[in-house]
Amino acid sequence: MTTILIKNIQIITMNRKEEIFIGDLLIENNKIKQIGTNLNVNTADKIIDGTNRTIIPGFVQTHIHLCQTLFRGKGDDLELMDWLRNRIWPLEAAHDEESIYYSAMLGIGELIESGTTTIVDMETVHHTEHAFRAIAESGIRALSGKVMMDKGDEVPLPLQEKTTESISKSVELLEKWNGFDNGRIQYAFSPRFVVSCTEELLKEVKSLSDHYHVKVHTHASENQGEIQIVQKETGMRNVVYLDHLGLANDRLILAHCIWLDEEEKRIIKEKGVHVSHCPGSNLKLASGIADTPYLVCNHASVSLGADGAPCNNNLDMFNEMRLAALIQKPIHGPTAMDAKTVFRMATIGGARAVGMEKEIGSIEVGKRADLAILNLHNFHTYPSYDVDPISRIVYSATRADVETTIIDGKIVMENKMMKTLDKEI
Ligand code: GUN
Ligand code: FE
């Protein structure tokens, strides 16, 4: 049994009452064992003094492409379809076992350093095995999968695959990695987007996700050019088409969802589809501004993701939270996306999207210990706890403020020293 005691720390619980208080927290193995003020615990394998520090649930990012970390800076001023055709697809096609491993490790290092403890990741067509290897070694919690692309003449030859091959390779990876390390790794089918997938493939993904009870992770309604292609080929809008194939359910995670019509919004809400909002990417690729206030007000599931590093130039959840709040203010007013709503999306909202709201996303006894310790005192104001810590985090924290990251009860970064990654990068 391993125990970690964190003493005298400000705890932002994100429990049902969203309580915030100063107290102690005891971790036993991979779970939160006790929370309270002045816990009567005298010994632990490790004791952390949390004075003047804040502990939060680790961030859950619901849309990431680890394989793209090394493509940062490529095609900075392009729109989605040109960016994919001219930059990203040729680069993905050029990946080998080593480059995908290091791309994933670098991305994971940045994620852990900025307090992200769970990701929903989409890889590329080949070598996904080596991204899983990086995920396994690093300690991050991840749902990941090989990209599926069995359609599209524009896709470079090395990335084109046959439907049966795309499915068999995905199932092979699923059988190897789903459930690895006590469920820390899960498989998620990853048909890239409707543009690159045949109907046959998408139908098979639907029945396989039912059979294996795993998530489906894809992009939808991100860009006008993409929507026109889908409309031309299927006669439908993205979400309507996915619903028509039976894919619209609470196992579906849809990245972006910017250009939704009323019917698509209704389907998302009624079928419990999870939207991964990626404000940084949506701005940088000139895709648009998603109507997240509408979705949130209508109780749709909305969480956050940084997308691939080149969509954004970093993988930092602080950046996404801040943008998610700021971009709505000039359109819908100052409280349309307030700090607490955004922080909820980044923590418990992400946990809900990955189907783990009973296990992660908040600091509660019995939950898995996925946590980040922040130093919010690099902020010049009257020295007191009167500053709303959630507002402080959303509007001004940076990855430099994250001191320690804990995943599944293991300290993976402490005082900015990466534990498992030191020797790898
Ligand atoms: N749509 C299809 N593929 C991609 C991708 O790699 N990134 C983004 N942002 N959108 C996509
Ligand atoms: Fe993406």
TrEMBL record:
Query: What range(s) does the Amidohydrolase-related domain occupy?
Result: 54-412
The top EC class is: hydrolase
Question: What Pfam families would the database entry show?
Answer: Amidohydro_1
Query: Does Disulfide bond show up as a keyword for this record?
Result: no
Give the InterPro entries listed for this entry. Answer: Amidohydro-rel, Deaminase_MtaD/DadD, Metal-dep_hydrolase_composite, Metal_Hydrolase, MTA/SAH_deaminase
Record field: catalytic activity:
S-adenosyl-L-homocysteine + H2O + H(+) = S-inosyl-L-homocysteine + NH4(+); S-methyl-5'-thioadenosine + H2O + H(+) = S-methyl-5'-thioinosine + NH4(+)
EC assignment: the record states 3.5.4.28, 3.5.4.31
What is a single molecular function from GO for this protein? 5'-methylthioadenosine deaminase activity
User: Record's NCBIfam families?
Assistant: PRK07228.1 (NF005557)
Q: What is this protein called?
A: 5-methylthioadenosine/S-adenosylhomocysteine deaminase
- Name the species this protein comes from: Niallia nealsonii
Per UniProt, what is the name of the gene that codes for the protein in this document?
mtaD
